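Could you help me review a protein record that somebody else here produced? What it holds is a sequence and that sequence's fold in token form. I need someone to confirm that the token line plausibly describes how this chain folds. Take the sequence as given and treat only the tokens as open to question. This is what I was given:
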Amino acid sequence: MRLIFVFIFLFLYCLSCKNQSAHDRAMDKLSPVIQKDTVGLLNLTPEKACFIVRGRLDLPAYSISLISQYMLPTGSLGHDSSFYFKANYVAVTRKSGKITDSLKVDIDDLSNCHTCSVILRNLTDTLQIQPLFIQLVTPGLDLNRNTYIGYREGKLKEFFHLEDTQDYGVDLQKTDESTLYGLTFGIDEVIGAVEHNYPVRIDLKTFKVSHPLPDKQYIGFKTDAIESFRAYRVIKGQVDSLLISVKAGDSVTIDTFYRARQKVRLLVADSVIVEIKLETAQKKIRHPPAAG
């Protein structure tokens, strides 16, 4: 595999010699995806492999590239370029020994996403995970994929991956020597809306990913009641015995969901805090329209 990717880099280097300065500028921008079917200009022989560099990250000790492989026929292309897509690879060259390691990554073909970009982010020093810890963010059909790559026992590996809606990727923090923590997207149980405050934890010993549900979750969705109901008023953070009537059409804000108690707190008329059962919120408060 290492010899294959030595050939890949020699192949890409030869292609770039005609306009080296333009090539370097493209790489500095992390290679936006190529336009549809431009790979057809390479005049390759039947079923010859073509490699496109989608992004590159240059570090003092390593050079990291995301490379797409296509198998192209002779002459003009009879299909959209995605038809010829074979696989995506991450190639890591260790500059000290000029050794290239490669890893096949399970991400979507980027051929037809002309406005898409990829992110290769070095987290080695930020998260203190040696000798190399890289976040690769790539767009998908519905969600963006965050792939985390590095070395373990001398081998290049994908440690874990996360899916999220944010283009810039999931922000992870190291909470102790063996744990990473961050927030990703989820669909709340109250109104079925996308929220970006769902915790994710990664065990650095096993790279196992867990998604613990928060006991208390802020929603902050302004809407209105579609049916009348009564709710207990909350005073100084405590649920009181005083009942407040909420009529159909009244403006309400879904403030916080208390998951363990299955209760929801609302703001009525922008100032009065009340608490209701989750079931009441699901049935008697207007939800956002379904996506798509």
